[in-house]
Write a structure and sequence with these properties.
Blueprint (H helix, E strand, L loop, with lengths): L8 E6 L5 H14 L4 E6 L4 H5 L9 E4 L2 E6 L1 H13 L2 H9 L1 H9 L3 H13 L13 E5 L3 H17 L4 H14 L4 E7 L3 H18 L5 E7 L6 H12 L13 H30 L4 E5 L8 H14 L1
Parallel strand pairs: 1-5, 1-6, 2-4, 2-5, 6-7, 7-8
Antiparallel strand pairs: 3-4
Helix pairs in contact: 1-12, 3-4, 3-6, 6-7, 6-8, 7-8, 7-9, 9-11, 10-11
Bound molecules: adenosine-5'-triphosphate (ATP) and magnesium ion.
């Protein structure tokens, strides 16, 4: 089985705010270092990755660093493009696209937006691009959060079964087959070492397997705090705190600064311990290998920080 970076399409998903975009960018940088012509696809008109690279980002595929491209896919635009391709006539597509009846129909067809979006993503990963765009070695998708990602991944199968005989059904089936082929498509999940993101990750992995027969390749637990104290050191700190400063035998009145430092050290230690407990829980429950990325102590991550995370990620993949 090819490793994650040797597939053609990798979807990065996870709960909202856990680092999907950051990990997608880090993974892309790792792929570029291996000489792969890589495109990162953001959805819902997001353009965070070009911003990270101080690039404007254009309408289509933009090269933001040598070998690294980004594109932002908007489902409405993707729907229009898809329609044009289906009908092979710009004029008719224009007419239909603008008509209220068409909008009514597409709004009523469940999952059509998801289907055209995943269709666009699928196209980015093809050796022969349907839209005539350039060919990439790897497409990485900064996918929506878990619930929506599952809907997106399910939509080709739904359309393949309801529109079996028509061109839409055939196309949907092709996409579905590509997504379920583990040699072509990979799934990377991101989580924070906290209770809810960990539970959501376990649940998503199970749903993806049960509902679509798709496995998760890797889980990245992001922004792990460092464990600064060994168990012995932590016990010593707790002993000092319990004795009100100093030691039980030689109590001293600690200064306010010392008290604050002690409290901060203990709180750090407890957080690291809680995070490791969540990490262990995830490792026990998940099928996919779990790797970690450290928390970077910056208010907002810049390109250098993502480069550093990328080097760590590459070592651990
Ligand atoms: N390892 C890390 N250390 C420190 N900060 C991080 C780390 N990873 C991500 N962040 C920061 O956490 C915030 C959320 O990360 P990011 O935007 O990548 O998450 P997301 O899952 O894509 O969020 P959304 O669901 O909103 O798209 C950002 O401000 C990012 O810079
Ligand atoms: Mg994001």
């Amino acid at each position: 089985m090819p490793s994650l970076l040797d597939k053609r399409l990798v979807l990065v998903t996870g709960k909202g705010g856990v680092g999907k975009t950051t990990v997608a960018a880090a993974l892309a940088l790792a792929a570029v270092r291996r000489g792969k012509r890589t495109v990162v696809c953001e959805l819902a008109e997001q353009k965070r990755i070009p911003t990270l690279f101080s690039s404007e980002g254009t309408e289509g595929e933009t090269e933001i660093a040598p070998g690294l491209f980004t594109i932002s896919v908007d489902s409405e635009r993707a729907k229009d493009e898809w329609l044009r391709h289906q009908l092979k006539s710009r004029t008719l597509a224009g007419v239909l696209g603008a008509s209220r009846l068409f909008q009514y129909l597409t709004a009523a067809a469940p999952g059509l937006s998801e289907l055209v979006t995943i269709g666009k993503v699928w196209d980015l990963a093809q050796l022969e691009r349907r839209t005539g765009g350039s060919v990439f070695d790897l497409a990485i998708v900064d996918a929506p959060a878990t619930g929506h990602a599952l809907a997106m991944l399910t939509s080709p199968r739904t359309y393949a079964s309801v529109a079996r005989l028509g061109p839409v059904g055939r196309q949907a089936e092709k996409i579905d087959r590509f997504l379920r082929d583990e040699a072509s498509t990979g799934v990377l999940m991101t989580a924070l070492p906290e209770e809810i993101p960990v539970s959501e990750t376990i649940e998503f992995e199970r749903s993806l397997r049960d509902e679509l027969g798709i496995g998760v390749d890797r889980i990245v637990v992001n922004a792990l705090h460092p464990a600064r104290f060994s168990a012995t050191e932590a016990r010593a700190l707790e002993g000092i705190a319990a004795a009100g400063g100093g030691t039980a035998r030689a109590p001293v009145e600690p200064s306010a600064v010392a008290r604050a430092a002690l409290a901060a050290a203990l709180s750090e230690h407890r957080r690291a311990r809680a995070e490791h407990a969540q990490l262990r829980r995830l490792r026990r429950a998940a099928t996919a290998p779990v790797v970690t990325l450290p928390r970077v102590f910056e208010p907002e991550l810049g390109r250098d920080d993502v480069e550093r995370l990328s080097a760590e990620l590459e070592r651990r993949l």
